[in-house]
Each structure stands twice: as structure tokens, then as C-alpha cells.
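Running this now, will post back.
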Amino acid sequence: MLGNRTWDEWIAHYATSHQHPVNRFCHTIGIPMILLSLVVGVVAMIAAVFGPTRLGLLALTLFVGGWAFQFVGHAFEGKPPEFFSDWRFLLVGTRWWAAKIRGRA
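Update: finished.
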């Protein structure tokens, strides 16, 4: 799945398209919003079995808001998102975020 690259090589490539400070900030906020939206969405589906909730709306808001941050950041960067060229960068972005939080990206 990694295409003969290590995670470190994928993250290094990803980082080359995420140099602008505004883009890095937007991704630092947007990526966890998207991940949280997925968790809330699963909880919303489970909770819907027991009755109506507003969790689905929260999940959708987090998902759309997170992606808005991503695309605003790329507008400042002046480069398209890496996943336009390779879907695997959707996974690499989460690894980049984790590395950034740990001070390694």
C-alpha cells in the first residue's frame, strides 16, 4: 500500500506542499475536525437506533468545516491538495498531523 516508500518519505513529500504557515495552521485544525466528524458520525448512527439525535448534524458540520480549513489553507499555499494526485495522501495527512503534534513535522 505504501508503494515502496516509508511513512517518513510519504510525510516528507506531504510536507513539501504544506509550507505556508496559514496552510499548516489550517491543517492543524482541519484534520482533527475531519477525524472527529467520522467518530461522531459513527456514534450518531448507533444513537439513531435509539431515537433521533442532532449528532448527525454535528458530524456533518465538523466534516464540512474541517475540509473548508483544508482548502482555505491550500489557497494560501497556492498548491492543490496532494490527494488530488494520490488518494493515499488522505492517510498521510493524518500521520503528518500526528507527527506535527509530537514536534516531528
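The chain has a mean pLDDT of 91. More later if anyone needs it.
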